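Components:
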Amino acid sequence: MSSLLTLFITLSILLSTSSPGVLSQPGCPPPPRPRPLIGRVRPRPPLYPPGLKLMGGRPPNNPGPLSNRARILFITQELKRNITYDPFNYTGTWVGNNYCLFKGYFCDTVPDLNITGLASIDFNGARFGGRFLNFYRFIRNLPDIAIFHANSNNFTGPIYRNINLLRYFYELDLSNNRFPGGFPSNVLGATNLTFVDIRFNQYAGSVPARLFNIDTDVLFINNNGFRNPIPAATFGNTPAIYLTLANNHFNGTIPPSIGRAWRTLREVLFLNNRLTGCLPYEIGYLVGATVFDAGSNLLTGPIPQSFGCLRSLQFLNLAHNLLYGPIPESLCRLPNAYNFTLSYNYFTQVGVQCRKLITAGTLNVRRNCIFGLPNQKSAAECDRFFRTARTCPLESTFSIVPCNISTVAASFVDGRKLKEIAAPPPPRTYAALEKAHR
Ligand SMILES: *[C@@H]1O[C@H](CO)[C@@H](O)[C@H](O)[C@H]1NC(C)=O
Ligand SMILES: *[C@@H]1O[C@H](CO)[C@@H](O)[C@H](O)[C@H]1NC(C)=O
Ligand SMILES: *[C@@H]1O[C@H](CO)[C@@H](O)[C@H](O)[C@H]1NC(C)=O
Ligand SMILES: *[C@@H]1O[C@H](CO)[C@@H](O)[C@H](O)[C@H]1NC(C)=O
Ligand SMILES: *[C@@H]1O[C@H](CO)[C@@H](O)[C@H](O)[C@H]1NC(C)=O
Ligand SMILES: *[C@@H]1O[C@H](CO)[C@@H](O)[C@H](O)[C@H]1NC(C)=O
Ligand SMILES: *[C@@H]1O[C@H](CO)[C@@H](O)[C@H](O)[C@H]1NC(C)=O
Ligand SMILES: *[C@@H]1O[C@H](CO)[C@@H](O)[C@H](O)[C@H]1NC(C)=O
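Structure:
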């Protein structure tokens, strides 16, 4: 016991006295190249103004010329016949010729026609039910549509390639519907989509590699049945700002290519999959990331020293994995640390700075193997875990620090800053883990 204690003290002294700047390596690799922007087409700002503004575009009772009126009225009546459950009585308003007045329909001036068109559908929470509510057939008959939101309905059916003929379409929310089968690859043909939300459906199988090449800001595919590894080669191509893969059955490792997304990625959730292997050091390139969550997987190995470069990080969750080793002190010096949860792993040491975060309630290390701290795993459980020799491939990469750590930590004066950190706004990606809309 006393030799263990000595070892522990020696290590914590080592950990706490390594001066922050020392870890920087002069020859450290530069940030990986993100996918070149050349050749990307995206209407910026969108052709139509953002969703909320569309409401002002509702014309009065006498609508004047309405784009594609006959077609829209026809498909609306077909959908209305198919809807057998309409608890909020949307379809009761779907009468007459002015579709701009229908509940859930929003009009605006069609960009290139100077005529009023159906720009947005908002069926969020309508809870339409019916034997076959055919999403694709419906939307294909709304030629001017830009935004389609249908959270918590019973839309279903295959999505065909011609969805790419909807030239203004940029925002798709089909979350919490009943879409079965494989990934709706044809959605990827709508190349101007900046918002893709297909969470809470019954999709299964692999996700196609080109999903991460599409030019989208928001990509929510959580709570489906996706399995197999995350496509490693293309993953880092994603220009998504908000990305959720949570609550699926992805296995394999977190692709090192993630580092290439450093310019854009702010929030990423790998939570609750079956990911294995060690954390790639390339995660440390994500200098803009505020949320990194890989909790409840089968990840192992230590936390790479590169995590000390995540200078924007507010929320870190690595709980319920098989991670081990010392918790890097540089992680606990990150200036925006707000909620770092590392509980239910096999971490063995925390240094002085991390202890301050524990005291402040910012760092949670319950149920680890940290000698001398309360609420740890039993010695027997820790013993059992460490009886197996554990290594990571590319061990040497765990000490790579691709930033100037002393600069990152400069604003963090000895724990005093802790009290000044106000609660950050709740992350958007965590809101996406709720079935219904906020
Ligand atoms: C639905 O709305 C329409 C039009 O507002 C109304 O006439 C009808 O009575 C409503 N139906 C129910 C069941 O509330
Ligand atoms: C659009 O149409 C309105 C009348 O419908 C007209 O006053 C206006 O000049 C037109 N704008 C353009 C850019 O053609
Ligand atoms: C909508 O789908 C859910 C889930 O499959 C089902 O339980 C419900 O009965 C459906 N509602 C209607 C009205 O079809
Ligand atoms: C309505 O139901 C019919 C019969 O199942 C189906 O062929 C059609 O595609 C559906 N249309 C829409 C808009 O849901
Ligand atoms: C995407 O937007 C560009 C630029 O506005 C447009 O030229 C192109 O046709 C759109 N692509 C699709 C598939 O609608
Ligand atoms: C991932 O799971 C699939 C079954 O869904 C299995 O065939 C494959 O070997 C697994 N791959 C890895 C890397 O674990
Ligand atoms: C901190 O994060 C963990 C894991 O995501 C979560 O369970 C917990 O509720 C969070 N605590 C606060 C105070 O936000
Ligand atoms: C790292 O930051 C420190 C403090 O700002 C500075 O003195 C030093 O020159 C920087 N080193 C490099 C390699 O940029």
